[in-house]
């Protein structure tokens, strides 16, 4: 057994018996030594203090002082022990048999014959401080409270733990005593009857029940029903008014006045608490309704800004702490085993957090799919339109996997919530839970098949072939002709390659096509420039006269022939195709002249060149082959003659 604790107990007993909060060390040593020797035979624990009392007591006093249980005060007269527990023990003793003193006012310093040091007591106002202490229990430091009543109605010394319930119980006992005295119960029933017209029986029963079982009123008051709150409000007001009219107040009058003042505070507190709870309950119902409304997914910031039908913020009708508790409970607790919580959290790819009602998750999925579908379709159509307009393609146009990948990339960019939802594992669990539920899931609204998510193209109702067809409809008709489009694509690729080569060449290109041909030929042969030019021009003029019919010039006949094999309507596309064919002729003619640098160039050779060009795979795809062949001959003649 701890000897220090024993000494503290002895100190408390000594102080309470002598009704003194302080005791001289010297006096206490004399008392303890005599007391221990006298009872050491009967009580073995006291034998410890019978020998070497002074040394042992001083050693234990130091420990008790460090623990804050006592205070050692030293002056010229010696050392005094201040026992803080003394005042608490006195107050506890005063309230021990409070039923027997219900007619007396609450204990105060005067009635108890003590003066509590300022550092051990806290003054509280009944109107302002007491409601806050009821809502938030006070700390035990300081443990003693001094409750001050208005209108010179005295004060009461209390202990902190009494605030929660004991204080109200004592007040109800005093009210009961007042009702039992001097026929006050019948008098007050008569006075309150007009305020409770039609409820006279309930009024009588409540007063009678208060006389028999007063503590039951606490439960009724905590619920603050439609009758109980006004009952206590009218009763307390009537008692206060009756007592305040008296010139000479008896102790029982002061006791009753103090009691109804306390009951009023508790009655108002419970009424406000019930009202706030009902407001919070209504606010949370409104929050539930908001979560079930479109757009069905909300961030915490959006939930905090929810308002009711009048535009009043819901946060305020419930506290931030209550909201956090509600969200935590809704996202973690389940109504049955093997089911998900009612409220689910979906995390976005960039850290977003959305709250979604479980019963709205599938609805939200299809809503978002419906909203994003036109955006995805437009984005793909515009992209493919630009590519096909330039005679280009991409894997997504032909390959299903590439098409699915492109759809996912667009979903990530155009609808992050949908992307997060489809990638969240909880979606499959929700789908399975409803699928196995009482009503099941309609076949056309299934998101999963054999445990896997249905392809995104099916969810979006977008088919690769349909999109390609729609894009081709928007383009001129020749884009839909494989032969023509492939030819144009080929020439465009050749042009790109040519441009790339030209960028890497540092020399300046010749200004005239024939000069370019002659320059290449001159650099690779020993024939003189003037003689070779004259020979080529003579061959060209001789062949020209035999090919051009009467009434036509070279250019006009070439334009007529070009319209036979180049039937494109779009001017830009038509010009591009013509230029591509001309470029092919020039390149072929240049290579031919290089290879025939020592041979004569004749009209038959021009015809053979045209025949060879027409038979190439790319030009074979063009219509009107004869017209194309004649056009090639005339273009060669034009190049040689200019």
Strand and helix layout:
Elements: H1 3-18, E1 22-24, H2 25-39, H3 53-66, E2 70-75, E3 78-83, H4 85-94, H5 109-112, E4 121-125, H6 129-135, E5 144-148, E6 155-159, H7 166-180, H8 184-192, H9 200-212, H10 216-223, H11 228-244, H12 251-291, E7 297-298, H13 300-304, H14 320-332, E8 343-347, E9 353-357, H15 361-389, H16 400-414, H17 416-423, H18 425-435, E10 448-449, E11 452-453, H19 456-459, H20 464-474, H21 482-504, H22 513-524, H23 529-547, H24 554-565, H25 571-595, H26 603-614, H27 617-620, H28 625-641
Parallel strand pairs: 4-5
Antiparallel strand pairs: 1-3, 2-3, 5-6, 7-9, 8-9, 10-11
Task: Summarize the model shown.
This protein is mainly α.
Core attributes:
three-stranded antiparallel beta sheet, three-stranded mixed beta sheet, mainly alpha, disordered N terminus, 11 strands, single chain, 642 residues
Structural class of the secondary structure composition? mainly alpha
> Any idea what the radius of gyration is?
53 Å
Strand order of the largest sheet: 1-3-2
Helix content: 55-70%
Q: What is the straight-line distance between the termini? A: 129 Å
Beta-strand residue fraction: 5-15%
Number of helices: 28
Report the count of strand segments.
Answer: 11
Query: What is the oligomer described by this structure?
Result: single chain
Spans where pLDDT lies below 50 across 5 or more residues: 1-5, 504-514, 524-528
Report the mean per-residue pLDDT as an integer: 85
Question: How would you characterize the largest beta sheet?
Answer: 3 strands, antiparallel
């Amino acid at each position: 057994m701890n000897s220090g604790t024993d000494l503290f107990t002895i100190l408390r007993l000594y102080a309470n018996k002598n009704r003194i909060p302080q005791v001289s060390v010297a006096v206490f040593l004399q008392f303890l030594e005599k007391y221990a020797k006298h009872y050491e035979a009967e009580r073995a624990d006291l034998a410890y203090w019978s020998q070497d009392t002074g040394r042992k007591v001083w050693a234990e006093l130091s420990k008790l002082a460090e623990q804050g249980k006592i205070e050692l005060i030293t002056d010229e007269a010696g050392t005094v022990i201040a026992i803080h527990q003394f005042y608490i023990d006195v107050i506890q003793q005063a309230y021990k048999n409070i039923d027997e003193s219900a007619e007396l006012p609450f204990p105060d310093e005067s009635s108890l014959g003590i003066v509590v040091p300022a550092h051990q007591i806290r003054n509280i106002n009944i109107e302002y401080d007491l409601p806050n202490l009821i809502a938030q229990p006070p700390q035990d430091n300081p443990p003693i409270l001094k409750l001050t009543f208005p209108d010179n109605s005295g004060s009461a010394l209390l202990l902190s733990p009494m605030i929660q319930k004991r204080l109200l119980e004592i007040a109800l006992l005093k009210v009961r005593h007042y009702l039992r005295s001097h026929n006050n119960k019948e008098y007050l029933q008569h006075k309150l009857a007009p305020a409770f017209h039609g409820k006279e029986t309930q009024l009588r029963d409540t007063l009678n029940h208060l006389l028999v079982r007063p503590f039951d009123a606490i439960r009724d008051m905590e619920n603050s029903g439609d009758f109980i709150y006004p009952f206590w409000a009218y009763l307390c007001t009537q008692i206060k008014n009756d007592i305040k009219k008296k010139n000479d107040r008896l102790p029982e009058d002061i006791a009753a006045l103090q009691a109804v003042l306390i009951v009023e505070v508790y009655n108002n507190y419970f009424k406000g608490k019930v009202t706030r709870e009902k407001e919070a309950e209504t606010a949370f119902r409104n929050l539930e309704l908001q979560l079930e409304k479109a757009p069905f997914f909300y961030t915490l910031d959006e939930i905090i800004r929810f308002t009711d039908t009048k535009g009043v913020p819901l946060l305020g009708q419930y506290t931030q702490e209550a909201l956090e508790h509600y969200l935590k409970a809704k996202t973690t607790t389940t109504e049955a085993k093997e089911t998900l919580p009612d409220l689910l959290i979906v995390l976005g790819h960039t850290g977003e957090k959305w709250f979604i009602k479980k019963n709205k998750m599938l609805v939200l999925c299809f809503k978002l799919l419906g909203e994003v579908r036109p955006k995805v379709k437009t984005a793909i159509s515009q992209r493919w339109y630009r590519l096909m307009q330039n005679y280009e393609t991409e894997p997504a146009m032909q390959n299903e996997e590439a098409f699915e990948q492109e759809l996912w990339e667009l979903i990530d960019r155009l609808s992050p919530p949908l992307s997060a939802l489809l990638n969240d594992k909880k979606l499959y669990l929700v789908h399975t839970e409803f699928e196995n539920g009482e009503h099941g899931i309609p076949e056309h609204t299934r998101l999963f098949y054999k445990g896997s998510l249905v392809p995104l193209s099916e969810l979006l109702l977008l088919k690769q072939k349909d999109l390609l067809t729609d894009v081709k409809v928007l383009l001129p008709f020749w884009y839909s002709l494989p032969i023509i489009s492939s030819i144009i694509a080929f020439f465009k690729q050749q042009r790109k390659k040519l441009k790339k080569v030209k960028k890497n060449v540092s020399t300046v290109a010749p200004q005239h096509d024939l000069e370019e041909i002659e320059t290449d030929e001159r650099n690779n042969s020993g024939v003189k420039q003037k003689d070779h030019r004259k020979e080529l021009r003579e061959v060209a003029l001789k062949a020209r006269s035999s090919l051009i019919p009467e009434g036509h010039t070279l250019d006009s006949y070439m334009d007529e022939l070009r319209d036979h094999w180049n039937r494109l309507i779009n001017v830009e596309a038509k010009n591009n195709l013509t230029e591509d064919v001309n470029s092919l002729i020039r390149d072929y003619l240049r290579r031919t002249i290089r290879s025939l640098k020592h041979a004569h160039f004749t009209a038959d050779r021009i015809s053979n060149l045209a025949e060879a060009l027409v038979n190439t795979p790319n030009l074979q795809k063009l219509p009107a082959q004869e017209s194309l062949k004649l056009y090639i001959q005339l273009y060669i003649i034009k190049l040689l003659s200019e």
